[in-house]
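Async update (no meeting this week)

Hi team, since we skipped the sync, here's where things stand on the single-chain job. The sequence we agreed to prioritize is pasted below, unchanged from the tracker. I ran it this morning and attached the output directly underneath so nobody has to dig for it. Comments welcome in thread, and please keep replies under the output.
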Amino acid sequence: KEIKKEKEAKFDTKLYTENLTCQRKIHSFLDHEGEGDSFLYFNRINPKVGFKNGDEVYLTEKFDGTTAQASCKGIFKRLDKMKKTQNWHNTPESERYTLCRLDLESVKNKYIVQSVEKYMDIFRQLPEDLCVYFESIQQHIGNRFQHLENFADIRVFDFARNGQFLPFEETIQLCKKFNLPIVDYKKGFVNLEELKKELSQNRNYTSFDAKLEGFVIRGVGNSALVGKFRVDDLQLIK
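Output:
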């Protein structure tokens, strides 16, 4: 045990992080106000996300797991640098988050390791300028998949090249190229009432016998617009 603790203490969590971009913060699709118990959503699209009714988009399934990212140098995770305060949402992302390299031999990361182990050879073959972002999903990560025995996998939702996030179409093609599993998605058009109706159906994920957390709405083509809409958000709409 002492030898293991010594190895963990020597592990450099900042190694290879200097040229990587943290996973971007995805804002709520719905407009909102308040904090804590006074927080609520409005029945309108958040102007910060930039979408409007009728826009062509990708509806991608939002997974309830642990967000991580990989380059050819290792597996990394975004961590909070500061506590969530009233000024949290107005603080630049560079001040809110830091990136750390995960020690895959540490017991603290065993569930993430189980989800990524069959993809490690693929990650090592990625070009040095490419980073893949994914949700690590496992029976013991959160409670949404806890009824699925021995379940562990990932779902990719983003790629970045030289620190710049790529259009979702390129993410689709890169997942095909590297044989990585992508989040289930479909093309559609922004319609707030239809989105609310679909989320209220309490349906399962397309690929798993588990309840859908929600959608991440992504722009088509070179659009960088993105917003999240969770099933639980419906209860907080004013």
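Quick observations from my side:
The chain is about 20% helix and 30% strand.
The mean pLDDT is 91.
Reply here if anything looks off.
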